[in-house]
Amino acid sequence: MGALHAGHLQLVRAAAAACSAVVVSIFVNPAQFAPHEDLATYPRSLEQDIAQLSREHAPCVVFAPSVSEMYPRGITTTRALQQGSFVEVLGLSEMLEGGSRPHFFRGVATVVSKLFHIVQPHRAYFGQKDVQQCCVLRRMV
């Protein structure tokens, strides 16, 4: 989602070592936030992120779409008012963190599905910090 740190850069290095082309997507996804969560204050540092990536000397393309590109009909953080198609991974998304944040994994699965359809990767690299998110995405794929 941006605000790259050492863990993200390690994933880029691993991808560059294994793949002939690397695409790094940077997108702060409104669908992952609920109305009471502060989307407005989430860090956005695209210029710094690009500078960090260029210092890595790992050849990559940065894909940083706008909200209107990812959600052409718009997106609200109020789930009941959202329109369009969304991806839900049933059986994993409702428990643990999903119990208190029912919008979160739906937003994650939807945006990752969109990014996969746009970029069409042969491999994808994700951090392992959020075990439930990894399980949800693995099941989705």
Provide the helix percentage.
40-55%
| Overall mean confidence score, pLDDT | 92
Report Rg: 15 Å
Report low-confidence residues grouped into runs of 5 or more. Answer: none
Number of helices: 6
* Secondary-structure element series: HEHEHHHH
Strand order of the largest sheet: 1-2
Distance between the termini: 19 Å
* Inertia-based shape: globular
Question: Can you give a write-up of this model?
Answer:
The model has no long low-confidence stretch (mean pLDDT about 90). The chain has a two-stranded parallel sheet. About 40% of the residues lie in helices and about 5% in strands. The relative contact order is 0.19. It has helices at about 5-20, 45-55, 65-70, 95-100, 105-120, 130-140, and strands at about 25, 60-65. It has 6 helices and 2 strands, in the order αβαβαααα. With about 140 residues, the protein is mainly alpha-helical.
Q: What labels would you give this structure?
A:
mainly alpha, 6 helices, globular
Summarize the structure.
By secondary structure, the chain is mainly alpha-helical. The chain is built from six helices and two strands.
Strand and helix map with partners:
Elements: H1 6-18, E1 23-25, H2 46-55, E2 61-63, H3 67-70, H4 97-100, H5 104-119, H6 131-140
Parallel strand pairs: 1-2
Helix pairs in contact: 5-6
